[in-house]
Amino acid sequence: MTQFTYQERFKTLRGVFDEFTNRTLFELQSRDYFDELVSPLLIGKESNVFLASKGKGIVIVKIYRIQNCDFNRMFEYIKKDPRYEFLQKHRRQIILAWTQREYKNLIRAKKAKIRVPEAITFMNHILIEEMIGDKEPAPMLKDTKPKDPQRFFALILEDMKKLYDEGLIHGDLSPFNILNHDEKPYFIDFSQATLVKTPNSEELLQRDVKNIVRFFAKLGIKENEAETLNKILKK
What are phi and psi of 189, to 5 degrees? Predict the structure, then answer.
């Protein structure tokens, strides 16, 4: 088993590799979910994302920060989700539930036959999922524009509809959270995804639609936000 060198190799990432995180990583490694962290992929507001080796392949390891994250914002989102009404405003409890929520949302999205990373496992504040891409991670939509924007937009709309019919809304859909892999959209970052029956779900869906319509307008695809929303809501 490869010896951990997280503190040495990623020591600039303050607040990530505390004792609790190291114990969780060690347990996940011991259970053979990954071999070793390879390199940072993305430093976000609430989490840091790493590439990790697994045999001859690569998986994604997403670590939610316990200390320096926007805990209040996370609580405001999750407390409206009927699945987590029981939660109290306790930092660690909220962050662990946030991780579990993303794992469950990914499984539900996969069930709806949407292009998303496979959720492999989660433990405490760490989520392990499939890496979308071949030898390297697929790029974000914002960085790699589709060759056929109209077709790409239609595929996104189709998946938003499937997700809604499955009873889920992404809630944070944008060119940052859609990958362009082989000219097909893959939705990622499901931590904010919530049930259709959540009180603010319509507001979140409208925001998702606005983000996508406005991005594709810059690529010459003129779609009406209201009409696009109706296509998703239509039975």
Answer: 55, 75
Residue extent(s) of CATH 3.30.200.20 domains in the chain: 6-130
Q: In what order do the strands lie in the sheet with 119-123?
A: 36-43, 47-54, 57-64, 126-130, 119-123
Is residue 187 within a helix (H) or strand (E), and if so which, with residue range? strand 184-187
Tell the residue number behind the tokens 């069930």, with chain if given. 111
Count Cα atoms within 13 angstroms, Cβ side, for 99.
25
**Residue range 149-233, CATH number:** 1.10.510.10
DSSP 131: P
With beta carbons less than 8 A apart as the criterion, state whether 178 and 165 touch: no
pLDDT digits (tens, 9 = 90+) for 9-41: 554 444 457 888 899 999 999 999 999 999 999
Catalytic residue ranges: 172, 189
- 165-179: pLDDT as tens digits: 999 999 999 999 999
CA–CA separation, 117 and 119 (whole Å) = 6
Angle CA(98)–CA(100)–CA(102) in degrees, nearest 5?
Answer: 70
Q: What is the pLDDT of residue 47?
A: 87
For residue 58, which phi and psi values (nearest 5 degrees)? -135, 140
Judge whether 20 and 66 are in contact, CB under 8 Å. Answer: yes
Query: Which residue has better confidence, 34 or 198?
Result: 34
**Architecture of the domain defined by 6-130:** 2-Layer Sandwich (3.30)
